[in-house]
Amino acid sequence: MPLTLHNQHACFGGTVGYYSHPSIACNCEMRFAVFVPPQAEAGPVPVLFYLSGLTCTEDNFTSKAGAQRYAAEHGLMLVAPDTSPRGEGVPDEADAWDFGTGAGFYVDATEAPWSTHYNMYSYVVEELPALIVDNFAIRADRMGIFGHSMGGHGALVCGLRNPERFKSISAFAPIAAPSQCPWGQKAFSGYLGSDSDSWKAYDATELVKTCAQPERTILIDQGTADPFLAQNQLLPEVFEAACKEAGQPLILRMQPGYDHGYFFIASCMADHLRHHADVLTKS
What we know:
Layout: E1 4-11, E2 14-23, E3 28-36, E4 45-51, H1 58-64, H2 67-74, E5 77-81, H3 120-135, E6 138-148, H4 150-161, E7 166-172, H5 182-192, H6 204-211, E8 218-223, H7 227-230, H8 236-246, E9 250-255, H9 262-280
Parallel strand pairs: 4-5, 4-6, 6-7, 7-8, 8-9
Antiparallel strand pairs: 1-2, 2-3, 3-5
């Protein structure tokens, strides 16, 4: 599948590139950013996919998170896709920042008109990894996934459902029990319909009951001053309880004074890259 390179920048001995391509899963042009570490000059490297949160694009993480420095140290490629389909003919909810454009929620929609384009789960799990394998020097057997907020939800879901593909998982302030919070209920009812049983396939708290991975530890950081924590949008304690019952190893770190933004993410980034590198760079 053809890639279009829009711009490229030298960064920590490697490069950051911004790309677009025609997507089969989303039936439109999709965008993503890639950090290629300097180690890729010598051969294939592990790859770490990052899923961003509501209203974000592929640029938020790439320009704000400070991840490239640590990825260069560990020899990890970073891939950051956009958060939803976009463009002419792609449906949107113009008055809603938490549904439609910028809010794909990493599900495969089943409800019209969303099902034609909003297939972010298949895009992240199948199409994008295949595209990266075909176009970059990566180790296809060494992929990890992490994300923030809505993207943290996506990382947990994609990782739990696809352990053979994603060998490591972490998240920053994830929407950890979307069926039980306003954001998730709005998105799921719109994209998936009113039958809440169909939501379970995209709810990490429900998934971990049957998809626990006892040999792998999930890392989650959550700021205690996060306003969405207080609004019961994130519910990390609900996911923690489900993990404990299912035997899923979880490190949940409540970070005093941190909010929901990228200053928080950047402050915890070194630990997350180390968490993934410990799994993905083992010989």
